[in-house]
Amino acid sequence: VVNTLDRSAIAVDAAWDVEGLYKLAAELEVTIRGCVYTHYHFDHCGGDVHPMFTGGQKVFLSGAKEVEDAGGTIWAGQGDAEQIQKQCSLKEVVAMRDGDVIPCGDLVLHILRTPGHTPGSICVFAAPRGLSPRSTIGSTGLKEARTKAEAGLLITGDTLFVGSCGRTDLPGSDPREMMSSLARLSTMDPAVVVCPGHNYATEPFTTIGAERAQNDMVIMGLSHFPSPPPVPPCAMCGEGGQICGPKKFRKGRKARIVNLASEAGQALNGQDCVVESYMDGKDRYAVRLFGQSGIKVLKPDNLEKPKMDGPSSEAAS
Ligand SMILES: [Zn+2]
Ligand SMILES: [Zn+2]
């Protein structure tokens, strides 16, 4: 996940080809600060692979160790951190609890504890503000799938898949906890885009709304846990402070600059920005332009809610 303001990035489940990931980052001129691991299975974090999967051979798969060796921080769910540290021979793993956040410039990743597939499985939620425009990062030779993610991006590891969920018949897994975790995820905004750790469908991503409507495992989860615990509040919006100012913008969401009359202002008309706050005493909104770090202070008349079809609403994953 890339913060385009300062071109820093946090990887999720970097394994198999960590070298390739760093090459890609170099190509895009993006600095990888570290990697979050959704759970301890080797196909997500690398390290010592159980001989059962290798025909008895000893195999050490590229993953968290290579990220740490490159100077990156390793984050993982509290219940899986120790196992990942051992399996990947790491010096340190930052153990994350439910509701913890990883700040990355303008980008904040929220950690949601979603046990079931493993005891410490987590999902990573990139808050809407973190979804900076893909177009400013540059291009690569890789094939890309693009989708809008106005309500945020949820990376679900082996918890929620398109139309199904991760296995719960493995050592350390717990079907009941999986049901509870799926029910909990289903309470998120229906427009949240879900990126699963494996894909068994035609499209490699889905939405919370689609899974709530069609995913039998989610539906079963909700029947067992009809009122699951809410997901932690967004750290960017804060509790209760989601709406601001006379135009009721959501903090951290996009707005469009309009109707500026001055010569300098006219160049800004039609541009998208992020709403930072409403300055009560001044009757002005503080906003930040995409791709820039300075704050602009504008009258409510000079901001409107953008239509949902702008190119800057694309999220990169
Ligand atoms: Zn797994
Ligand atoms: Zn997996």
Descriptive labels:
globular, 24 strands, single chain, Metallo-B-lactamas, six-stranded mixed beta sheet, 19% helix, Metallo-beta-lactamase, Chain A, 317 residues, SH3 type barrels, alpha+beta, zinc, five-stranded mixed beta sheet, 2 domains, disordered C terminus, metal ion binding, 8 helices, binds zinc ion
Q: What is the third-level CATH name, the topology of the largest domain?
A: Metallo-beta-lactamase, Chain A
CATH class of the largest domain: Alpha Beta
Unreliable runs: 309-317
Radius of gyration: 21 Å
Bound molecules: zinc ion
Please give the alpha-carbon distance between the first and last residues.
Answer: 6 Å
| Fraction in helix | 10-25%
Tally of alpha and pi helices: 8
3D shape:
globular
Q: Could you report the average pLDDT, rounded to the nearest whole number? A: 88
CATH architecture of the largest domain: 4-Layer Sandwich
Number of self-contained structural domains: 2
The total count of strands amounts to: 24
Protein name: PksB protein
Pfam families: Lactamase_B
GO molecular function: hydrolase activity; metal ion binding
Cofactor: Zn(2+)
